[in-house]
Protein 1
Amino acid sequence: MKHLSVQHLLGIKYLNLQDIDLLFETANHFKEVINRPIKKVPSLRDITIANLFFENSTRTKLSFELAEKRLSADVINFSASQSSVKKGETLIDTVNNILSMKVDIVVMRHPNVGAGVFLSKHIDAKIINAGDGAHEHPTQALLDSYSIKENLGSVKGKKVVIVGDILHSRVALSNIYALQLQGAKVMVCGPTTLIPKHITSLGVLVETNLKKALQWCDVANVLRVQHERMDINYFPSIREYTQLFGINRELLDSLGKEIVIMHPGPINRGVEITSDVADSKQSIILNQVENGVAIRMAVIYLLAQQIKPNS
Ligand code: NCD
């Protein structure tokens, strides 16, 4: 039985290539399971998982919850907007109270960078980072790479451009780590104000001309402008952003080749991508969502193996 090299999933930064291979192999198995008439396996019948969401989420929260239920785990859900966090309780107190109910795994989304790492040092449960501020979103990057591999046969040697608000995106950073670990070439493209100054130190290419970036790549992963993380104006208007960095059919047709279009969601239709492109054959956005469940089942299953060494 192969094992992950890590005790928690805090970021792609902490994984090695064998971990990614093992996660993908396990996800292949679960993808087959969730396409069966009976989509559930009894693997985690005695495991309890708490989903703690201190920030809004639709897809990630539902995807984790479904993954946990498909594995037959007991699941409790917590969202900060309806909790005592609003009454001034600290993170450790909130989580310790939940853990005294005998929780084995905590899936956490939190607005603060490093919240997962902090928690892993203070509590006795497996931690899965479901997004910490503008830092990492490891399961999203895993499902993105898995979807590229499924579509193009491999990640190694592929050219991937991440388009849009790189500065505020945890999806971007986790994708950069995951893609490079697997031998892909990565470029970022967006307004200079939304590209971190030192990003080239990560070994990525930077391009501010969208057409040139798309001509270079095999895959474009398109990001939403994260208005909720912006305290100033990073570009003059949404209309100008769309004109310079929006992906539309005409632009794609002018490339003379077909690239794969991805988006982590939620999409702002008509801003970073037009509806016809998002819904076209070259878009794998819904495959990403489907693969998200299989990937999250794999992450949870492999971490749970470390709790139950004899299973
Ligand atoms: C992303 C996130 O929350 O970081 N969404 C997601 O998890 N699918 C990206 C975003 O919010 O734009």
Protein 2
Amino acid sequence: MATTIAFFDATTSEKTSFERYFTGPKYKLHIFDKTIAEVPLYEYKDADVVSVFTASNVDAPTIASLPRLKFIAVRATGTNNIDTKACQKHQVAISNVPAYGQTTVAEYTILLALMMARKMPAVMGSVESGQIDYRRLTGFTLQGKTLGIVGTGKIGMSVASIAKAMGMHIVAYDPYPNEAMEDKIGFSYVSLVDLFKGADIVTLHAPLMPATKYIINKKSLGLMKDSAILINTSRGELVKTIDLIEALKNKLIAGAALDVIEGERTLDVDTETDLLLGDKKTSFEIAELDVLTKMNNVIISPHNAFNSHEALHIIRKTTAQNIHGFLSGNSQNLIKL
Ligand code: NAI
């Protein structure tokens, strides 16, 4: 019997790649451009393998309703959108793409830092409005400023290397410090409190897990300099958005650049309709997003840091290898359940 693989969140070019990676009668493919929640179950109920990007939540009821499901290939590093307990219960293995984007995401993080430092939202806004007054647009250089990196894994280290080359002073926090890299790149591990107190720019590169959820909250924002910039290219739930809004309104920090945000799926909805139709949580998230997008010291991008041609190529190739490996008994990149 053919192995059925159901891909969700697939772009047109991903579709072409996956059709090339899985050819012949051994495979039956369902390729959807929608999230798993948007596709009726009967269209993929025969799936042996499911592959999703970050937009799809593979929850316990979905896992329980796929009788043949054995493997979930996540086309990202973070796997927080998969219900691991349900996978354990139903003996479903999960793989990720552990290393595709450290340079891509690190460069994007530095881009956001530069944009915030040089007030790019206001600079671009002034050109659009035809009122160019450089006195309102004065920024600061990154050279000589202190960058606080929360999480020194692949992306955090890559950010550290680039920032070091730009003349920044770097402090970092990680519960599992990498002292060899600390010496090699030339930064210092400090406590989280000292990082928040001392950094001109705080950038988040820790995965979403119970210990990191809302690591940026009223208390941590209160420790930061009033000139500090917060950058989040990790996962939205690391930041308690309502506390960030309050801190920005009260000028406890100077600005924020968020590639990821709680409830980021609401970025592509019709705001007013969804406010009327959505549940309380969705309405709250939409309202938060609406407030933030109106602030000229905030940049929001739609979970886009990974999005380079180079990274996409590695994601597709590694996902195909993960699936081929699992099906042939040579699994790779499995997540510990
Ligand atoms: P990684 O696994 O290489 O590094 C994560 C680091 O965080 C590790 O050094 C770990 O020890 C550290 N960490 C664990 N708990 C921590 C805590 N409580 N406080 C501080 N640090 C802690 O992961 P990588 O590849 O560097 O990616 C980091 C995150 O970036 C991913 O988990 C993912 O959520 C996000 N990401 C976002 C993308 C985007 O497009 N915006 C693209 C790729 C990844």
Protein 3
Amino acid sequence: MAQRIVISEFMDLPAVEQLRGRFDVLYAPDFVKQRSELLAAVKDIPALIVRNLTQVNQELLDAAPKLKVVGRLGVGLDNIDVAACEKRGVKVIPASGANALSVAEYTITTAMIMLRTAYHSTASVAAGEWPKPVLGRGREIAGKTLGVIGYGFIGRLSTRLAQAIGMQVIACDPYVAADDPIWKATGVRRVSLDELLAAADVITLHVPLQDSTRNLMSAAAIAKMKKGSALINTSRGSIIDEKALAAALKEGRLCGAALDVFEHEPLADSPHLKDVPNLILTPHVAGITAEANARVSTMIAQEITAFLDQHG
Ligand code: NAD
């Protein structure tokens, strides 16, 4: 009898079919909202595949005594109690790098939109207004400085794209040593957080959510940002003080912000984020494109298959 895999969130269908060729697969993307059904279904399974919403915590591990591996259709592991998995000998496999290009493209796109400030005019131009004097004050991206916080997979890919359009890049990452050859190889200056906040025209966050990064962009940090600069967050919501950011935009201290992630998703009614100028809000889709979905799902299908072949 083939081993059983439960998939509790959306997975690209060709990859589900690929797994079905080898295993007994229960594809139940609604399980993410049906916790008790999920807990019952994982009782005898060796492999579980999740996205970013299924909480893989002690409760789930207790309900799944035969679990050996968790595949994560994405990168951030904040919905998975990695320490508890390690203690139980459950391997966690993220889709490292598979959606990085989509996130990096989101970073560059939103940076250009925010500096140019000219793309929010569709309704007014169609209505016969001609807001040329206001919207003609945008800035070019070339020659500007991108400040990358978190110089990992996505930070480095964003750097490559930024350099290709003429940006200079500085980065802050205390876990990439000053003598790491990556700095010279990529032509990026390693700076402290304070230096980055003061110098960057656009700041982009690519750190995992953990105790040391929670509220990293606090009100005090936002106050240190260069006047007229912009902030992009595709990492995790709790890393930014949203209220302080909205205030800085309303006061005109920052030129724009793009937020793809929030402390609570979906957003509950958030009055502080309403009527904020040059604010781009997207529903956690920076890493989600047709190409990235296919890459992420294929990668996890292959990794889970290889793991079960070896350890099943
Ligand atoms: P990664 O592990 O390759 O890189 C993270 C980097 O952050 C590492 O180099 C690490 O040293 C650094 N870091 C940790 N703490 C830091 C700190 N206090 N200050 C500065 N740097 C610090 O991860 P990645 O693949 O680049 O992904 C980064 C994050 O992006 C993920 O953890 C995830 O939360 C988020 N993400 C979001 C989406 C989306 O759709 N919005 C998609 C993919 C990833």
